[in-house]
Amino acid sequence: MAARVTPADRAAASQAARTTTSGVAVEVDDEAGAGSRRETMVPNTHLMASLLGPHDELLRLVEQAFPEDRIAVQGNRIAVDGPEAGQLSRLFEELVLVLESGQGLDAAKVRRTIDMVREDVRPSEVLNAEVVRGARGRSVRPYTAGQKRYTDAIGENTVTFGIGPAGTGKSYLAVALAVQALQTRAVNRIILTRPAVEAGERLGFLPGDLMAKVDPYLRPLYDALYDLLEPEGAQRLLDRGTIEVAPLAFMRGRTLNSSFIILDEAQNTTPEQMKMFLTRIGFGSKCVVTGDVTQIDVPGGRSGLVGLDKVLGEVPGLAFVHLTRRDVVRHQIVADIIRAYEEAERSDDGG
Fold this sequence. Notes:
By secondary structure, the protein is of the alpha/beta class. The protein has 13 helices and 13 strands. The protein has helices spanning 7-16, 45-52, 57-65, 85-100, 107-118, 123-127, 145-156, 170-183, 210-214, 219-240, 271-278, 308-312, 332-350, and strands spanning 2-3, 25-28, 37-41, 70-74, 77-81, 132-133, 139-140, 159-163, 189-194, 243-247, 259-263, 286-291, 318-322. Helix 2 crosses helix 4 and helix 8 (170-183) packs parallel to helix 10 (219-240).
């Protein structure tokens, strides 16, 4: 529960506290011995207002996450007292660093920051890591610790598997890193591909040739490109063949050199298709494979993604990153829906 401290409280805290710098938490003596007490000094009132949120709504979120601790705000000082005072003070310190970097705070970002602090991850390092600067100067960054692990793995490995539920940014971040690699001339082209598997629909009844039939299923990849490069810029690169978007069947028999290759919706490949795809990688190329093993539409359920970490886990230059509902960056209800499905599945398995 938040409280406004009295002058006597403030004087006692000032006497017990060690010398500190702005935005850094310090430990304060707790004569009662009931728990540790920490204080954080916020550099200025503008940052404090942004930290607490309109009508203290962001402070209320923190209080709800740490119900056993007491938070007292006085001027530019935040004092915390309770069993998780250490984590709480680090949370406020990290939020100040995020604000000082020029970013704003909202409820979703504060919730994700709380999760990261509890995972012993520094949110300021995660949220300040720019992946690429997209169209109109907009910065693309990881929003969660899982997304940071994912982007780091892509940078450090030749092949990276990003596995997780919808809304975790698997495809978007992969396309963003592909655009960065193209802009820095680390690769000569981008190749985006998906298996032509329908979710209970029939491609044969759609008009046009194979490319026209599968084009709607590739639309999420186009959307990411248009968001990062603007429609005109993306279309120019598509027309030149610098960016190629094609169904997985078109990869057979090719060797893909100096390319950034993304296989999206990989849970809908068969084991044979997955092997075919992974053996297309040529010199100077980087590959990212994304998928959600809870949404398999491939006939018979024979997914080329399921269990692949057991087969390829020891291969050097290859990494598997598993994202969870904590990495969902869509509306909060999406994470809640995923959690509800997970709990129902565990209940079914147990019963």
